[in-house]
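pinned: reference chain
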Amino acid sequence: MADDLKQRRLHAMRGCDRILSGTRPKTIRERLADLEAGGDLDAMPDFYGGGPVTELEERVAGLLGTQAAVFFPTGTMAQQVALRYGVERTGVTAVALHPLSHLEMHERHAYSQLSGLRAVTSTHEPRNPTAAEIAALDEPVGSVVLELPMRDAGFVLPTWDELVDVTVAARSIGARVHFDGARLWESVIHLGRTLPEIVALADSVYVSFYKSLDGISGAVLAGSDEMAGFARAWRHRHGGTIFQTFPAALSALSGLDRELPRLPDYVRHARTVADALASLPGARVFPHPPHTHQFRLWLPYAADALAEAVLTLAERERIWFAGGWQDTDVPGYAMTEVTVAGHALEWTAEDVAAAGWLLAQELD
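pinned: its structure tokens
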């Protein structure tokens, strides 16, 4: 039943002329076309590295301003290696983590289960920790992890000055700084700095290729040459040095060409979309204005009712509003994450309001 509903959603979204949140699902043939856009298909593939994988690593290192970058099949694996490197460098097995961080919420506590590390809570506030909170930690930590932006707090970012201050505070207590930068690409607008300026504040950073760049999969862990050597050794031990990964690498290169230049426009337009959504009856938006091209939306209906109304609207009107609704602790409200990308740039504030009115008609 769940698979049937998933297929219905995918079919409905692909059939829509207009998509407000998210991107149109791609077929395998369309994915293969992305690979062709990512490089020369007559070139030789990678063999445990080399080829398009090395090209991708070198390109990302250049974009981030780091000495080196190492491709990983998953961000979860990349982050475990980054934290293990912190232990090697500091001798401290505790790491400062937010309870809402990706490592706590979505990685099944791999840092403790695989590497024997221990979390020290950096803050309970729904944001990254401040310099004062890091300075006030009552036990040593080898690494301080900052998630930019913090997805499960609402895609929120610190200000540039706050980010600088917290990295200085981390080093003052003898800790390394690791950026969980899965969505770092789109954070430059809010922070008001270039990617190299942001990354220069950290000792290591992980970036994803599928979350914002529309890649198939994969990630990079970037930092010093020394860290990169360590990362390659431990990637092998984790089973992440794969015979051939050229599909993911070519897809990532395509995403860097196609989507990375568009992210600033997505972020700016998200503010227009968020304003329009906030004007709908009973709607709540957070953060407002959004810090990136993603933000949270609450509407005063049950999640199941919203999901069915969105599907009905998509199938009848060929308009996709937003999916992924979840009931919340706020009585009578469901929440979703809105992602402004691709076709959403075509939506005016009036278009958003009109779609919201049609959705309300389905629910009333």
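why pinned: The CA atoms of residues 18 and 319 lie 5 Å apart. The chain has two domains: 2-25+261-363, 46-243.
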